[in-house]
């Protein structure tokens, strides 16, 4: 996750004085995001997944993306288990359709 967040750094413009004002190079473009995170051994969001989703959401929103959904995928460890979990598929379907309509 840290590597992902670090790679967002190039999309910020900073003023001369640091720390100070900054802006997003991606601002005002109507960008949207769906955030999904897998908590292989979590059975509820309070097991750290709430922090994981927030840690990804905050820098993405700072770049002025509109987060249209955050999808915690809990208790999924085995390969291929997600595609057989109808509850997760349904939870991801609407945001997926919404994202498709934007492009």
Commentary on this structure:
This protein has helices spanning 2-6, 49-62, 86-102; strands spanning 12-14, 22-24, 32-39, 66-74. It is of the alpha+beta class. The protein has one domain. The protein has a two-stranded antiparallel sheet with strand order 1-2. A two-stranded parallel ribbon has the order 3-4. The longest helix has 17 residues, at 86-102. Helices cover 35% and strands 22% of the residues. The chain contains three helices and four strands; from the N terminus they run H-E-E-E-H-E-H. Helix 2 (49-62) links the parallel strand 3 and strand 4.
Write the layout of secondary structure elements.
Blueprint: H1 2-6, E1 12-14, E2 22-24, E3 32-39, H2 49-62, E4 66-74, H3 86-102
Parallel strand pairs: 3-4
Antiparallel strand pairs: 1-2
Continuous helix count: 3
Strand content: 15-25%
**Distance from first to last alpha carbon:** 26 Å
Provide the number of structural domains.
1
- Low-confidence stretches are none
| Arithmetic mean pLDDT | 85
* Helix/strand order, N-terminal first: HEEEHEH
Number of strands: 4
Strand order of the largest sheet: 1-2
Largest sheet: 2 strands, antiparallel
CA gyration radius, whole angstroms: 16 Å
Helix content: 25-40%
Q: Which structural class matches the secondary elements?
A: alpha+beta
Based on CA inertia axes, which overall geometry fits? globular
